[in-house]
Predict the 3D structure of the following.
Amino acid sequence: ENADAPPLNDTAGDEGTDGAGFEETVTEVAKGIDPAFLFLGVVVVIAALYYYFVIRKKKEQDQDDFFANLDGEKFNLKLPGEVDEYYAVKEKCESMGWEPGQTAQNPAQASPAHRALAQALMKRAIADIPIVTHIQKESSGMNKLYSQSMCSVNQWRSYQAAEQLVSTEVEEVRAEADEIEPGWSQVIWRQAMQYHQMLKQKHEQEAKQAEEAAAKRKEIEAKVAEARKLPQTPEEKEAAADKAAQELLKD
């Protein structure tokens, strides 16, 4: 029976030989790898870990900051200073004897207090136009985002607060308008929008004219400087200076 079984020593010897051969193979392979490749591999691993733990974290933080700023700034609306100015004028007019509902048959015969209060309210409404149009512009988009759960709770609450602020202001202006002139509430916002557009166009035109005048002045100054570089007699220099002065006076 024992004659057919392999000798224990032979098996152990084979296993030992195989183990030693494997170690020798690993050693030879390790010796055959260029140290530069080993260093490169370490660098790649470190870079991957750095990206995952640092860059990715920073990117997520930047996104959170973006939405946080969006929540805090986009709908962080404030009423213009003309609102407080109006109530100051109203208080002064009341001290002068004006009462709500007092109207004149002829607008030309309106009391100074009545005219001052009407002008103050129109000035207030015109100053409100930017925030009113801003909410009107954002309303449909925000409601759509909210219905699709695509905006944060903070952003939605911020929008609701801004919308409430503007809605209250619109109604207060209408109420004040009817106190000054019954029925004025029906047209005051349309009038305010028209005046706002007129003022906006006027400011844009003035800015354009100022820019063109500055460019013209710069061009003339460049011509004068270039002319001074040329050889001239005293008479020619004086004539050139007079011409440049006349061109500047024309502007």
